[in-house]
Amino acid sequence: MRLFLAIDLPASLSREVADAQALFADADGLRFTNPKQAHITLKFLGETPPDQLRPVADAVETAIDEAGVEPFDASLGGLGAFPSLDYIRVVWTGVRDGAREMVHLHDALDPELATLGFEPDERDFSPHLTLARMNDARSKTYVREVIEDEAPELGSFRVREIRVKKSDLTAEGPNYETVARCSL
């Protein structure tokens, strides 16, 4: 199973995600994420044996307790790119309210999951929602201009849980399935 840990956006925000993606409608070389599957990835675990699912969920629950994070409100807005505007691989909208709580959760997850053999993240965690991935640089200048000129507000939502998600890669794009829920 290919697993990751995420905070799912409510379905009520999928229209706003699609509207933010529409700002890039004239860009070639972008592959957009599915707004109906919108989520904030806290940690990518990769290929994981099925018998590790329960230990992973237990580690997530322990990390939530360690972080001391209760349900909180989060909001999304603005635009950015990873790794930089000069070399765009991912176009994202940022987490505004709730970013601190998400960083605390991420930071608590790493040591708990390390006990199961998952490598800690090497980069600092930056909470974001991926809008698109850039396949090639044909429209890099256009994408950079949109990022610099636009600052959409996507809305806010209540975060109540971390979900363990399974990702199946298909020719049409990834399909995500929640395989465990861990309440804050």
From TrEMBL:
Catalytic activity: a 3'-end 2',3'-cyclophospho-ribonucleotide-RNA + H2O = a 3'-end 2'-phospho-ribonucleotide-RNA + H(+)
Enzyme Commission (EC) number: 3.1.4.58
Chain positions of motif HXTX 2: 128-131
Gene3D superfamilies reported in the protein's UniProt record: Cyclic phosphodiesterase (3.90.1140.10)
Top-level division of the source organism's lineage: Archaea
Ranges in coiled-coil conformation: none
InterPro entries associated with the record: Cyclic_Pdiesterase (IPR009097), RNA_CPDase (IPR004175)
UniProt-recorded Gene Ontology molecular function terms: RNA 2',3'-cyclic 3'-phosphodiesterase activity
Keywords: Hydrolase
Signal sequence bounds: none
Catalytic-site annotation from UniProt: H39, H128
Motif (HXTX 1): 39-42
Family membership: Belongs to the 2H phosphoesterase superfamily. ThpR family.
Cited function: Hydrolyzes RNA 2',3'-cyclic phosphodiester to an RNA 2'-phosphomonoester.
Protein name, UniProt field: RNA 2',3'-cyclic phosphodiesterase
Gene name as annotated: thpR
